[in-house]
């Protein structure tokens, strides 16, 4: 059993405070009865309606996945390609969805959840949640080029936010390099476009970190539940707790 306002927030109806206001002003019904008190608790079998519209009352689920290549990070795909939901292989009964996206050919750390409020906050640019990517690129970036990434580069006419960049290794014979790039923006194909902007197209790309979370112990195609402390830390990052 969870407090009603918490269930509403998890369903993405409103923030916790917004949900409390909806309750106290008579917008919420539980099992057909209008509720105006904040102490009410509900379970997954209870019916909750906000302004006569039902909401999901299932318990929140938080999953960390190591997405392999050639898998799309969507719930459904019109081209019938394998999705990250397919990788769950019916082990998760609740309906979850990805927090943001990784490209079809990009691998690495992806979060999935049914907690709409947290998902929205994690992807909102104002919270500046950091993501670290490891890229194999053509050519070997110079210090000056890496400094450009730290200051921001022009992508489609707009300056990107400053990033953390580092040359991890280089192969002089093959003229390739491994670069670490940490960003807090989440525009479409952003890492690829930033590295392209300094003249080093991406050959392979992997997301290794999402905030404090890593892929330790999770092989490509595998997933695990976040533990309560990890969920608490994520919420603290976006001031939801």
Automatic annotation (TrEMBL):
Class of enzymatic activity (EC top level): isomerase
GO BP, one annotated term: enzyme-directed rRNA pseudouridine synthesis
Entry-linked InterPro entries: PsdUridine_s_RsuA/RluB/E/F_cat, PsdUridine_synth_cat_dom_sf, PsdUridine_synth_RsuA/RluA, PsdUridine_synth_RsuA/RluB/E/F, PsdUridine_synth_RsuA/RluB_CS, RsuA_PseudoU_synthase, S4_RNA-bd, S4_RNA-bd_sf
GO molecular function: RNA binding; rRNA pseudouridine synthase activity
CDD domains: PseudoU_synth_RsuA_like (cd02870), S4 (cd00165)
Keywords (A to Z) from UniProt: Isomerase, RNA-binding
Cellular-component GO terms for this entry: cytosol
Keyword Isomerase: yes
PROSITE patterns: PSI_RSU, S4
Pfam families (alphabetical): PseudoU_synth_2, S4
EC number of this enzyme: 5.4.99.-
SMART domains hit by this protein: S4 (SM00363)
Gene3D superfamilies: Alpha-L RNA-binding motif, Pseudouridine synthase I, catalytic domain, N-terminal subdomain, RNA-binding S4 domain
Keyword RNA-binding annotated: yes
Family to which this protein belongs: Belongs to the pseudouridine synthase RsuA family.
Entry-linked PANTHER family: PSEUDOURIDINE SYNTHASE FAMILY PROTEIN-RELATED, RNA-BINDING S4 DOMAIN-CONTAINING PROTEIN
Protein name: Pseudouridine synthase
Lineage of producing organism: Bacteria, Bacillati, Bacillota, Bacilli, Lactobacillales
């Amino acid at each position: 059993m969870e407090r009603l306002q918490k269930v509403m927030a998890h369903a993405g109806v409103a923030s916790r405070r917004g949900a409390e206001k909806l309750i106290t002003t008579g917008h919420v019904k539980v099992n057909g009865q209008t509720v105006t008190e904040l102490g009410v608790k509900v379970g997954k079998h209870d019916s909750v309606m906000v302004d006569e519209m039902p909401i999901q009352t299932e318990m929140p689920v938080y999953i960390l996945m190591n997405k392999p290549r050639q898998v799309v990070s969507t719930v459904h795909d019109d081209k019938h390609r394998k999705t990250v939901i397919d990788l769950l292989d019916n082990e998760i009964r609740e309906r979850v969805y990805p927090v943001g996206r990784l490209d079809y050919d990009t691998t690495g750390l992806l979060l999935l959840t049914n907690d709409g409020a947290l998902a929205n906050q994690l992807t909102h640019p104002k919270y500046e949640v950091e993501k670290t990517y490891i890229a194999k690129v053509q050519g070997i970036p110079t210090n000056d080029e890496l400094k450009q990434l730290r200051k921001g580069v022009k992508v489609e006419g707009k300056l990107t936010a400053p990033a953390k960049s580092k040359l991890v290794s280089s192969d002089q014979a093959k003229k390739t390099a491994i670069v670490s790039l940490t960003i807090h923006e989440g525009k479409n194909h952003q890492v690829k476009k930033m590295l392209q902007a300094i003249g080093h197209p991406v050959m392979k790309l992997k997301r290794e970190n999402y905030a404090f979370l890593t892929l330790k112990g999770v092989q490509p195609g595998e997933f695990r539940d976040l533990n309560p402390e990890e969920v608490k830390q994520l919420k603290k990052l976006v001031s939801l707790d």
